[in-house]
Amino acid sequence: MRDRSRATTTLAAPPDPTADEALQRARTAMTTETRSLMTAIGRALTEVRPTLVMREVTRLAYAGRAAADVHGLGTPRAVAATGLLLRHMPRVDWPTTPAPITRTEYGMQLIRKAAI
Q1: What sign does the CA torsion over 65, 71, 76, 77 have?
Q2: Rounded to whole angstroms, how far apart are CA atoms 18 and 104?
Q3: 116: how many CB neighbours lie within 10 A of its CB?
Q4: Cβ contacts of residue 52 below 8 Å, gap of 6+?
Q5: Spatial separation of the C-alpha atoms in residues 43 and 106, rounded to whole Å
Q6: How many CA atoms lie less than 13 Å away from 37 in the CB half-sphere?
């Protein structure tokens, strides 16, 4: 019987950093669906109570609602779409802005970013 504790070990090759970066870029790339959802959210923000101050809670709610409207509430695809949206929608509360931003201003930012 062979003693397995003395068997030679094989080390895996070190990970390729360029492949990791490419995979990360592919995971976070803005898809056509993300662009259309961001545009729809931006338009909604400019039309519904446009003078109110934009809050982080509003950003989270709009992303979740837009993804649920397309993919269904709580489905894995809706969760993934929400994650992509939130990754590309700039945060409202961080870094802190010198003055509060209105829903219209934020909506216009989203529309511009989706058009790029």
Answers
A1: negative
A2: 39
A3: 6
A4: 102, 103
A5: 10
A6: 26
Single pTM value for the model = 0.73
- Look up residue 114 and give its amino acid: A
Q: What is the helix, strand, coil percentage profile of the chain, to 5?
A: 65, 0, 35
Cβ neighbors of 37 (< 8 A, separation 6 or more) are 63, 66, 67, 70, 81, 85
Angstrom distance (rounded) from CA 103 to CA 87: 19
Contact 69, 41 (CB under 8 A): no
Residue identified by tokens 């939130």 is 86
- Per-residue pLDDT of 21-75, as tens digits, reads 766 766 667 888 999 999 999 999 999 999 999 999 999 999 999 999 999 998 9
